[in-house]
Amino acid sequence: MENLDWKNIGFGYRDTDYNIRCYYRNGQWGELEISSSKRIDIHMSATALHYGQEAFEGLKAFKGKDGKIRIFRMDENAKRMQSSCDGILMPKLPVEKFTEAVRRAVKMNERFVPPYESGAALYIRPLLIGTGPQIGVKPADEYLFTVFVMPVGPYFPEGFKPTNLVIMREYDRAAPQGTGKYKVGGNYAASMYEGKLAKEQGFSAVLYLDAREKKYLDECGPANFFGIKNDTYITPKSDSILPSITNKSLMVLAEEMGLKVEQRKVPYEELSEFEEVGACGTAAVISPIKGIYDSDNDKWFKYGNQEEAGEWSTKLYNKLRAIQYGEEEDKHGWVEIV
Ligand SMILES: *Cc1c(COP(=O)(O)O)cnc(C)c1O
Questions:
Q1: Are 308 and 168 contained in the same domain?
Q2: Where, by residue number, does the polypeptide cross the bilayer (predicted)?
């Protein structure tokens, strides 16, 4: 793959050589299969298509300076997919099937893992869909689990630069007792409309408030939210946000760096008290935020010097990336070398 411009490939679908598949039929999961087809043959009455019975995951593999390929915390993704399975009545995929499929997908597409110097990575997309036909609203009796991969460019090809978020109270991503805590496609369909509006207006994402009272911060479209003040890393606790593995990791690193960590309800008013804020997720690790616009009250919250990310966000970002690329000791056993 010597002729790919790794640094500028961005985040988009790309073909690679192989994908891994596993079928659930007659009440049990089958063996992992290797495929080089990009297509799946699916019944037109599959539950995934009509009723959104599908869940996905997203994680990355990184090539280190030492040439070794590392996958970050895939057991956590496996467990989160199990939680999604429980949430929308799909048969639970064994953790070991998940991790073995991820390992194989990476290994078999090794030539697509970007080189260390590029800052790019191999994005891994596990997907579980209800394939069995139903027309009544009930779970399918057949499922397909697949893992495919693609190289993606560095999230910040021009440097670690802060962006703006927007609050729009007329839209919700997930209901208070709904499926917000599961990584399912339906949540994404529900967020596309306002996501597009936000982008058209120059914002990187919507910052959602809790849907019930609009008093507390929830999360940003596809990433968790955190704020830092008085040497404390603060991130919302809510039943309608997706438990981010990046956030979970940052909380551990923040504590090691001497910050206090609080996961609790975060009232809207606290936005005026934070010294730094950021969005976190696999795609960017941390996406630093320089401003939040409350569109309903025409009010801005501004952070830092408007040019660069804050000190703690930068430290946390560098630390987590260093672990992922094998430059820093992996004290917590977060990476697996394949
Ligand atoms: C996937 C996802 C995140 C980020 O989770 P990571 O495990 O850190 O990648 C955050 N919010 C939502 C809604 C997501 O779907």
A1: yes
A2: none
